[in-house]
Amino acid sequence: MTDKIVTLEQVVEGVLTFALLVASALLLLGLLRGEELALRAGILVLLFTPVTRVVLVTAGLLRVRDYLFGGLSAFVLAVLASSIWVAFWP
Amino acid sequence: MPGSTLLLILSGALTGVVGATLGLGGGVLLVPLLTLAMGVPIRAAIAASLISVIATASASSTVNLEKGLVNLRLGLALEVATAIGGLGGGLASSLLSTDQLFLLFAVTLAVMSLAMVWRSGRRNVIADLTVDPGPLGGTLVEAGTTYVYRVRRLGVAYGSSLVAGAISGLLGVGGGIIKVPILNTFCGVPIRVAASTSAFMIGVTAAASGFVYYGRGDIDLHLAGAVALGALPASLLGARLSHRASTRWLKFLMAAILAGVALQMGWRVR
């Protein structure tokens, strides 16, 4: 069980790193060329990075039938979903 | 790229590296820097700071996950509280006036300053490996030896996480400065695990309120983009430096700076 958590952590770390690189590139592009769209995209990537992380962790935990922590993680996702809902569908 | 943009990137970088090195998250320094030194309206500064806090927290998480310091289960359990706190704080911030935000910031910084000095730095480790860490505890490897720790007083941990989340959503800070001392002093968590796990949670907390700010149009794209861009590489550097920065005098220096900034922020309201 501990091994599976460790692998999950590695996957999460990889995805986080990739997301941050994408965000950096978009922000740099947006600042250099004064492009609002790139800035907006970069900021949204940053906002969605923790969300993606929670999605991955939830899926990973449920897959190994860890329903206690998978359930907790799903609850966190629900809170984030509420926040996203407030933001985009007022 | 205009000079003002470079200055913003530098601000993000400076607060990011100091924040990640000392486990603070740059928000506590960034918001005062932007509002007091650069005349940015406080609401825009808070929104921009949240974005850069997400960047900082995610960046330092990648380093901490590598080091095996993050207690994923504990982090998940407490994230429920910080996320709710963050969402609430983000929603509530529209109810506060500019002056009230400055005042709240000043009070929070003053409390943080005390928390920095008062940290007991308990080791909380048990050398006997036959002890069961329980569902939330774990193991820690320090200087080649493996230790076990157990988590106690979960209610206190939850309560402080909820408050930390609300503060994060209201003021654009990470909230770690509230969680880490409490986890270490009252809940049996070794300091490095507390700091790493707290940093892991901060991204979710900041996102919970960050979306609300985005939806309200409080995020100045150029401002937020510039500070976040500065904070990203800076916090990766800071996270790697963090194990070298635990000298007591540095903490006292930080506490003094926080106290000074608290006074400045409070002074704005006179």
Quick overview:
Helix content of chain A is 91%, strand content 0%. Chain A has 90 residues and is mainly α. The N and C termini of chain B lie far apart (37 Å).
Strand order of the largest sheet of chain B: 1-2
Structural class of chain B: mainly alpha
How many DSSP E strands of chain B?
2
The total count of helices of chain B amounts to 10
For the residues shown, what is the average pLDDT of chain B? 86
Give the overall silhouette of chain B: globular
Order of helices and strands of chain B: HHHHHEEHHHHH
Q: How many angstroms does the end-to-end distance of chain B come to?
A: 37 Å
Unreliable spans of chain B are none
Give helix % range of chain A.
over 70%
Q: Outline the biggest β-sheet of chain A.
A: none
Residue runs with pLDDT of under 50 for 5 or more positions of chain A: none
Q: Please indicate the percent range of residues of chain A in DSSP E strands (runs of 2 or more).
A: under 5%
Strand runs of chain A, count: 0
- Shape type of chain A: flat
Relative strand content of chain B: under 5%
**Number of continuous helical runs of chain A:** 3
Characterization of the model:
The complex is a heterodimer of chains A (90) and B (270). Chain A has helices at residues 2-33, 36-63, 67-88. With 90 residues, chain A is mostly helical. The radius of gyration of chain A is 16 Å and the shape is flat. The N and C termini of chain A lie far apart (42 Å). Chain B has 10 helices and 2 strands, in the order H-H-H-H-H-E-E-H-H-H-H-H. Chain B has 270 residues and is mainly alpha-helical. The radius of gyration of chain B is 18 Å and the shape is globular. Chain B has helices at 3-22, 27-38, 42-67, 72-92, 98-118, 154-171, 176-186, 191-216, 221-241, 248-267; strands at residues 138-142, 145-149. Helix content of chain B is 73%, strand content 4%. In chain B, helix 1 packs antiparallel against helix 2, helix 5 packs antiparallel against helix 10 and helix 6 crosses helix 8 (191-216). The chains are: A mainly alpha (90), B mainly alpha (270). Chains A and B meet through helix 1, helix 2 and helix 3 of A and helix 3, helix 4, helix 8 and helix 9 of B.
